[in-house]
Amino acid sequence: MYFAALLARTEDGWEASDTELDDVETLSDLADLAREASPDEDTVLVLIEQEDSWFGVVRIDGEEDPRIYVSDAAAAARSSYGEILLTDELLGREPGDDDADLDSLDLDGTEDGEDEDDDAEDGGSTAEAVPHGPVGDAAILDDLGVGEKELKSLSEDALGEIAEALGASEVLETVR
């Protein structure tokens, strides 16, 4: 079960809206969705959570590049919404690192009949490339009252605790 919400900072405080991520396929799509929530180019936070497994925060400040924090990259990698946040840059990879070089493939004509065990081995190498634990900008909320240490220590109801520290817990609860 997922929960996703946008928190937009306005002159009057924080405004929350729940959001559907079904049409979001890339980080750019997510950033565009967030920017639409704040026409004045104020700070917008995209909060995503999967049932105590992991949470992510994406911060959009006007036209700047999104800043991202994910509490558990390995758990998020198993999620379609998590995959949106786990960019090559965030994971410290060169874009396209996971694409196989055609020259290095062993194409011996048996590709159609490969064992399932071979597929499991291939999937394992991708999972190993994603670290267990937090990735991204742990200082993403420093200026809003949630320090790195506090952010890294959040577990159950992390989004609620973040919203409380921002003074936005009531508006977040209205969209939960």
Can you walk through the features of this model?
This protein has 176 residues and is of the alpha+beta class. It contains seven helices and six strands. The chain has a six-stranded antiparallel beta sheet with strand order 2-1-3-4-5-6, sandwiched between helices. Helix 6 (158-166) crosses helix 7. The longest helix is centred in the last third of the chain and has 13 residues, at 116-128. The protein is globular. 27% of the residues are buried. The model is unreliable at 99-105 and 113-127 (pLDDT under 50).
Low-confidence stretches: 99-105, 113-127
The total strand number stands at 6
Largest beta-sheet details: 6 strands, antiparallel
Structural class of the secondary elements?
Answer: alpha+beta
Give the termini separation.
12 Å
Percentage of residues assigned to helices:
25-40%
What would you call the shape? globular
Radius of gyration equals 18 Å
Strand order of the largest sheet: 2-1-3-4-5-6
What are the SSEs and their pairings?
Blueprint: E1 2-10, E2 13-18, H1 27-36, E3 43-50, E4 54-61, E5 67-70, H2 73-77, H3 80-85, H4 116-128, E6 135-136, H5 148-153, H6 158-166, H7 169-175
Antiparallel strand pairs: 1-2, 1-3, 3-4, 4-5, 5-6
Quick summary of this structure?
By secondary structure, the chain is α+β, with helices and mostly antiparallel strands. The chain is built from seven helices and six strands.
Which short descriptors sum up this protein?
176 residues; alpha+beta; six-stranded antiparallel sheet; 6 strands; 21% strand; globular
